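Let's see one such:

===
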Amino acid sequence: MSAVHSLDLPPPPAAPARNGATIAATGLRKEFTLSHRSLFRPAPRVVAVDDVSFTVAPGTTLGLVGESGSGKTTVARMLLKLEEPTAGTLTLNGRNVLGRQTAEQARDFRETVQAVFQDPYSALSPRLRASRIVGEPLEAQGTAQPAIDARVAELFDQVGLGRALMHRYPHEFSGGQRQRIAIARALSTNPRLLVLDEPVSALDVSVRAQILALLRSMQESLGLTYVFIGHDLGIVRYLSTTVGVMYFGRMVEIGPASDVLREPLHPYSRRLVAVASGRSRLGDHRITGDLPSPLDPPSGCTFRTRCVYADDRCRAEVPRLRGLGGAQRVACHHAEAIRAGAKAETGPLPHAIP
């Protein structure tokens, strides 16, 4: 098994904070209005993210994990201001970044926060040479062309491509090389925070390790702050200082990566780690169960329809994130009893009750 797929990897070393940013989210909520299904009823609304809070310190990485549809990418889009939260606050270095801003404030935010997305094939314009792609953010800043050329050449060397490849078109590069171009473009404005939305999931396994090593070395040398979104827990463990586990739009567990991925407290986190480590099959009924509908979410704990420990309290009361004496916080009524092996299996509780 490749090193990046092992849950026993050492945590990333502490990065210097000279260039990093502190980003803090409090009570983020995002609702989407769907198209009308009836002339006589209001358009249905779906809550994609509900009451999500976290803080990422300078030079560290927050890894967000969970199944597809858990709300990870919606959180990323709010961090990038591609989606406006329905409720909640978002601050960067203590300054609110939501709501109306001046043109200068918006420009400063775009320079400070950059993104690297999943698919390097669609992220680059096929009509532009690589040098132009990487230099576009600098052109938008009004930087003089000689300075752009020098910066682009420096970035191609920094991401391991070499300036001899600057003038090729995207189709002349491999997938891993294209992702290096995307990383170079993200670095062009000297950002302090990178939002990495599954940046290696579309790459071959051998190439993934190279890109991950590049991201880690850049964080160590530049002191960047990362928010990393992924499915592979081994990869998340390789880069992350803190890990947040999301389910159905909520943060169900958050804490140091070494704690969450070695001794998870929430039943959902426990099943994810068991599957990733090979101790359980994906088809295990304990994690499949009755998947709820976003249009009709269950009452109380939304995981109760898939949790073997669910009981009447889980049906009636929404669990809140709380600490159990350590650095981890978990949203589960029975986390102490489950950890001690003293909780009986009383669930899952289906949404439709006879």
